[in-house]
Amino acid sequence: MIDVYSWATPNGHKVHIMLEECGLPYTAHAIDIGAGDQFTPEFLKISPNNKIPAIVDPDGPDGQPISLFESGAILLYLAGKTGRFLGETTREKYEVLQWLMFQMGGLGPMLGQAHHFRLYAPEQIEYAVNRYSNEARRLYQVMDKQLGQHAYLAGEDYTIADIACFPWTRSHKNQGIDLADFPNVKRWFDAISARPAVQRGVSVLADKRKPLQDDKARELLFGKSQYQKR
């Protein structure tokens, strides 16, 4: 039984979806990032960067327990453990990896900044809103072009590249994106949304998450608490 320490966010949902797609037994433990759970000594032992998600698998590669943080690393680990969603040939695996890196290095960070400056920043900074909204649109254009040539991001098969990117596109409206402007992304989005494992994955811990409204939660996520030495 894999222990998943997570929250109902795009990065958390990547791992929830992968576990559901692979049919692996797991227990989800809520790390309420608005309450500061990510800073507890217990969580920092398995996630030193104080970010969700993290997992502990008692049946690691050598038969010993292993803990992992960083959602991309966890996806790769679970793909290796199950032999699924990473392509069959060496060429296919590299195709998947480049689109996984696209999400980890570009799509996630840039859409995260778009969310922050459009929704959460204490003041509206026009330059920042425009910069990250425009970058969000550019990234959707990149995906739309690729998905105009292939069924999925890394080719004709559904892979961890899609599992990584999809949760970030669920909040497209908050990013200033209308999927009608990106018909290939919309087709892909609708197809993935319809997968039963995806529907189960995005429901994990969703009932525990509340709108980010109070000042304490905002300070824990965006204020000085982020930068304290621990």
Helix-strand string: EHEHEEHHHHHHH
What structural category do the secondary elements indicate? Answer: alpha+beta
Shape: globular
Contiguous low-pLDDT stretches (5 residues minimum) are none
CA-atom Rg in angstroms: 18 Å
Number of strands: 4
Helical amount: 40-55%
In terms of DSSP E residues, the strand content is 5-15%
What is the strand arrangement across the widest sheet? 2-1-3-4
Mean pLDDT: 93
Work out the helix count.
9
Sheet of most strands:
4 strands, mixed
- Span between termini: 30 Å
Protein described:
The chain is α+β, with helices and mostly antiparallel strands and 230 residues long. Helices cover 53% and strands 8% of the residues. The protein is built from 9 helices and 4 strands. It has helices at 10-22, 41-46, 71-82, 90-120, 126-147, 160-169, 183-193, 196-203, 215-222; strands at 2-6, 26-30, 54-57, 66-69. A 4-stranded mixed β-sheet has the order 2-1-3-4, covered by helices on one side. Helix 1 packs parallel to helix 3, helix 1 (10-22) packs across helix 8 and helix 4 (90-120) runs parallel beside helix 6 (160-169). It is globular and about 50 Å long. The protein starts with a strand and ends in an 8-residue tail after the last helix.
From the structure above, extract its key features.
230 residues, alpha+beta, 4-stranded mixed β-sheet
What's the short version?
By secondary structure, the protein is of the alpha+beta class. Helices cover 53% and strands 8% of the residues. The chain contains nine helices and four strands; from the N terminus they run βαβαββααααααα.
